[in-house]
Known about the structure:
Chain A is α/β, with parallel strands linked by helices. Chain A has helices spanning 43-50, 73-79, 96-101, 114-126, 144-157, 175-190, 202-208, 231-239, 296-304, 326-331, 341-345, 352-357, 361-364, 373-386, 403-415, 433-448, 460-466, 489-508, and strands spanning 3-14, 17-28, 32-36, 58-63, 66-68, 81-84, 107-108, 111-112, 163-167, 194-198, 211-216, 219-225, 260-269, 273-281, 285-289, 311-316, 319-321, 334-337, 421-425, 452-456, 469-474, 477-483. A six-stranded mixed sheet of chain A has the order 6-9-10-3-11-12, sandwiched between helices. In chain A, helix 8 (231-239) packs antiparallel against helix 18 (489-508). The longest helix of chain A is centred in the C-terminal third of the chain and has 20 residues, at 489-508. Chain A is globular and about 75 Å long. Chain B is mostly helical. Chain B has a single domain (16-21, 37-307), classed as ABC transporter involved in vitamin B12 uptake, BtuC. In chain B, 73% of the residues lie in helices and 2% in strands. Chain B is globular and about 55 Å long. Chain B starts with 8 loop residues before the first helix and ends in a 9-residue tail after the last helix. By secondary structure, chain C is mainly α. Chain C has helices at residues 15-30, 37-62, 70-84, 89-112, 118-137, 149-156, 165-183, 185-195, 197-202, 207-233, 244-254, 266-286, 291-317; strands at 142-143, 158-159, 163-164, 235-236. Chain C has a two-stranded antiparallel ribbon with strand order 1-4. Chain C has a two-stranded antiparallel ribbon with strand order 2-3. Chains in contact: A-B, A-C, B-C.
Amino acid sequence: MSNVLEMQNISKTFPGVKALNNISFSIKRGEVRALMGENGAGKSTLIKILSGVYQKDSGNIIFDGKEIDPKSVLESAREGISAIYQELNLIPYLSISENIFAGFYPVKNGMIQWREMEERAAKMFADIKVDVDINNAELSSMSTAVQQMVAIVRAINMMDAKLIIMDEPTSSLDAAETKSLFEIIRDLKKKNISVIFITHRLDEVFEICDTVTVLKDGEYVGTRNVKNINKYELVKMMIGHEVAEERKMAINTICDSKSYLCELRNIAWNPKLSNISFSIRKGEILGLGGLLGSGRSECAQILFGCNIPDSGEVFYEGNRISLKSPVGAVKRKMAFCTESRRTEGIIPNMSVEENICIANLSEFSNKIGWTKRKKTRSETERFVKEFSIKTPSIKQLVKNLSGGNQQKVLLARWLCMNPKLIILDEPTRGIDVAAKAEIEKMIREFAGRGISILMISSELPELVRNCDRIIIIYEGKTIKELSGNDMSEERIMQTITKFHEEEQEVEMR
Amino acid sequence: MRSIKNLSAAEILQRFSAPIILLVLIVFNALFTRNFLSINVLWNAIMQSSSIMFVSLGMMVVIASGGIDISVGSTLGFGSALLVITSYAGGDTNSLLAVIVPVIGCALVGIIQGLIIAKFKIPPLIVTLAFQSLIRGIAQYCTKGKVLVLRDPLLNELGYLKVGGTSIPIQLVFIAIAIVIFYILTKKMAFGSRIEAYGDNPVASRIVGIRTFQLVTLVYMISGIACACGSILETTRIQAADSSMLGLNMEMDAIAAVAISGTPLTGGKIRIWGTVVGVFITQLITMTVNMNNIQYEYSLLLKGAIIFFAILVQKSKEKTKKGLRQVVQNG
Amino acid sequence: MASKKGLKLKLSSFIPFITFLMLFMVSIIGNSKFLTMNNINNLVRQSTFNGIISIGMTLVILSGGIDLSVGSVLACSGALSAILCQYNTVLAVVIPILFGLVIGLFNGFAVAKLKVPPIVATLVSMLAARGLAYIFLEGNSLGIPKNAEMFLFLGKGKLFDILPFPTLIMAILFILFIWILKFTCFGRNLYSIGGNEEAARMLGIQVDKGKILAYMTCGLLTSIAGILITARVGSALPYAGDGYEISSIATVVLGGTLITGGKGRMSGTFWASLTMAIIANMINMQSVTEPWIQKIIIGAILIVIIVIQSPIIRKRYSSIAKLFIRKHTVKG
C-alpha cells in the first residue's frame, strides 16, 4: 500500500457552520504535503480530526492500510500520527532527553536507567547536528526551533510515527533554523515518513514540499504537484474566485475626507512586524489584506495598546501616543473586536444587556457610580432592534446566542461608547451568510456616520466590497496601498505574488 | 411527572438547594432543639453572626472577581487587636480612633495583598495563605499573645446596644446596613458589573478598558475593610481581643457561605442573597451543634461536607450546559 | 553535540543547601550556645516532623496540587494512635496509617476524578479530619500510658544513645523519596503531570493515578509523622498540627519546588527543612518561645520566595495568553 493516508468524504459540522464538506485526498508514504488555505478554510479542523481532538461526522480515514477513528490524541499517536503544534506538547522543566523518553522510560529492576536514556537521546540528536545540552538544561530555556526538533525526534523514535503533522513550524524560526528543519524533513522522507506541512509561506511550499492541497471554506479545492503549479495559481486557489466579484458598494462610503485620525509609522515588533506604516482617515474603511500570519492582527493589537512596539510611532488625532494598555485606547474612543470573539470578546455568563453596556459603564452611571438601569435597558433595546439581534430577552446570557448575534452584541457594545475608530479583526468569521450581510451593512453605516473602521479580513471579496482603501501586509511589512478602481481580488493577489517573487530574487542575488 | 414550573426535581434541587437546606435546618431545630423558637435565642444568633456576615460579603466580592482570600480570619484578629490597643491609648476622641485604626489597618492588609497579586500575578491562594500566617503572627505580637480586655465604656456599650426601646440588638442594624451597602455596591453600581466581568472573562475585560490592576487591588481592600467592620462588631460584643483565637477558621465559614450562594468559585456573577442565606446556614449549623450539645467538631465536618457538595452541584450545572457548546476554531 | 555530563549541575539546585549553610554559619557566629549538644538535639528534633510532612507535600505540589489537610491529619492520626495504644501497639501504628491513606485517597480522588480544585478538596478533608480529631479525643488531650514502652520508643527512643528514632525515620524517608523521585516512573511522572498535564496525558502517562498516589503518599507520611509526634510528646492533642500545613508548604517552596508544580528536588526540601529548623531555633534563642514570631517569619518567607518565583511562572504562560496574562488560579 503506497498510500499512508486516505481521507474519504470527510465531513464535519459545528453548530451553525459546516467546517468540512466531503473532503477526499490521499498521501503517499514519504510524501511531504503542504496543506494551505485561509482562516476558516478547514485546515485546523482537518488536522484536529486526524489527531483525534475532534471526531469526524462522516467519511472514512484509512491510515496505513486500516480504517481508524481516533477518539483522543493518545489514540492517534498510537496509530502512528503525531501532531506538532505551536503550543508544543512538551514538558517545559524537563531536559531534552527526558522529554523524549517521558512516558517511555527505560526501566530495569524497577529503576529508570538514566545512562541508557541519555545515550540513546544523544544518538537520536546526533543526526540533527545541533549543539545543545540535552541532559542538564531545561527545555523551556531552549529556542522554539530546538523544542520543535525535540518533538519531532520524539515522534519518530518513541511514537513510531508514520505521519507527522506540522502546524506552521517555521513561524518562530529564523532562516538558519528553518534550513535545519528542512534537513530533518528530508531525512524523514528518506525514512518513508510522510509529512503534512501547514504553512502560509509560499516559498516554503515550493522548497520543501512535494505536493500541495488547498482547502477553501471547508471545501476541497485541489491537490497539485508543486512542479506543475506557479505561485500565482496557488494564491488564486486559496483566495481567488473564478468570477471577479463586482464591487458592490453603498454610495455613502466613498470617503473623501482629507483629515487623518491615526497613523502607524515604521512600527516594528518582534517577531511578527518589521516595518508597518499606514494611516486611517476619518470616516474611512481601511482594509488590511494579506496572507494568514502576515501580521495584520498584531498591527491592530499595537494600535489598541495590547502590545508595546519595539520601535516606531503611533499617532492619534495629531498627537503621538504610546499606550501601555487598552485602557488608554478605550479612553480615546477606540474600539476593538478581536479575532476570537468567544474567548476574548464576549463575557459569556453575563446578559446581552450587561455585555452591551460594559465598555461604556461610566456613561451609564452617574457621578457616584450608580448605574442608571433605565438607560441601560433602553439603550440595549435600541441596539437589539437596530441591529436585529435575535435574543429572547436582553437578560439572556450571551453564551447562548449564535455566533452572528454574538458579533452583533459586540458591535453594539462598541457603538455604545461612540467610538471614533473601530478595529474589526475577522468580523464575519464563522457567521452564516444572512448575518454576514447584515453586519457588513452595519459596518458601512458606521463609516457613513464618520467613524473610522480598520477591517482585517482574509476574505478578499469582503475587503474589496467594503473598503475605501486596502493596505497589503506581507510578512510584517506594509507593501502596497490600493484604492479606487485598483481594488480588486486580482490586484491583491498579484501584488502579493509579485512582491514575493521580488523578495526571492533579492535573496538569490 | 413534571412540577408546576416545568422543572424536573433535580433541577429544582439544583437551583434552590440553598434555601432548601436552610429550611431543613430551621425545621430540624424547631423540632429538636429546646428553646429554639424563643426570641432571645434569635437575638443571640443575630449578634453572633454579625462578624461572619461582613466577612462573607467581602469574600463574595473577592471570589466573584476570580480570586480567594483565606487570610480573613487572621485579619479579623488583627483588627480586633488594633481596636483594643488603640483604646488603651487614652484620650478624648479615643473611642472614635479605636474604630478608625482597625479599618485603616485591615484595609492596608488587603491593599498589600491585592498589589502583590496584581503586580506579580501570583495565585491568590498562595499569597493569602502566606498572609494568613503573617497577619495572625502580627496580631499576636501586638497583644503579646494575651487576651486583652476592652475597657472603653463607650465601645463596650456598643456591643450590647439595643434599637430604641426594644430588645433588637444593634448588630441586626449593622447586618442590614452591610447587606444594603454590598447590594448597592455590587448590583447597583458599575463597580459590581466590572467585578463580574473580570471574574468571568479577564481578557475581554481588559479589552473593554476596565482597569484590571486597580480592580484586583480594590477587591482585596474591600475584603480587608469588611474584616475590620466584622472585628469591631465582634470585639465590642465579647469585649476583649483574643488575637490567637478570634476568627480562627472563619475563612472556611465564609467560603462555605459563598459556595452555597451559587457565586461561581472561579469568578462571575455575584449572588448576594445566596451569600446571605449561606451565612445563615453556616451559623445555623454552628447553633444546632452548640445548642444540642453536639461537639463543635461535628460542625466542622458538616461545613466541610456542604462546601464539597456545593462545588459538585456547581460542576454538574456547568457540565449540562457545556455539552451543548462546541467552540468553532479557525478552520 | 555530545551531552555535557559530569559536574556541571545547575547552580540553582545548590541554593537550598547554600541557604542552609549560610544560616548555619550565622548561627554559629551569632550564638555561642549554638553548637551545644542540647541545641543540636533540639534543632534536629524540630525539623523532623515538618520534614516528614514536607516530603509528602513535595510530591503533591510537584504534581500541580496542594494539600491543606496535613495538620489535621497529623492530629487525627495521633489521636487514633493514642487511643489504640492502650490496646495494642501494632494497631496503634497500622490504623492511623490506614487513616492517612484513606484521607489521601479522598483528596486524590476528589482532585483527579471529580476535578474539584485541590484547595477545596483538601480544605474539606482538613475540616473533616480536625473534627474527627476532636471527636476521637472528646476534646481533651489523651496521654500515652507509661507502660506502652514499645510505642513510646518510637518517639522518645534513641539509637546508639544519640540518634532519636523519629529522626532516623525521617532520614530513611528522605533517602527513599529522593531515590523515588529520581529513579521511578511514578516519581518522574509527577514532574510531567505538574509541568504540562495535557502533554503528560498525550504521552500515555496515567495522570489521575499519579495524582491520587501523590496525595495518598502525603497522607501516609503525615500519619507517620502524627504517630511519631504523639509518641515523642507522650500525648495526643486535638489541636496538634496547627499551622503545619503552612510550614510544610513554605519548606517545600523554600527548597526550590515551584508552587505551580513540575519542578523541584527532594534534596532541596531536605535542606529547606533544616533551614526552617535553624530559623525556628534562632527565634527561640532570642526570647521565650513565642509562636507568633514563627508565624510572621514563615509567612514572610513564603511571600518572598513566591514573589521571586513569579517571573519563572509567568514565562510559562506567556505563550498562551496573547493579550494579557492572568493566571488567577485558585490553585487548581
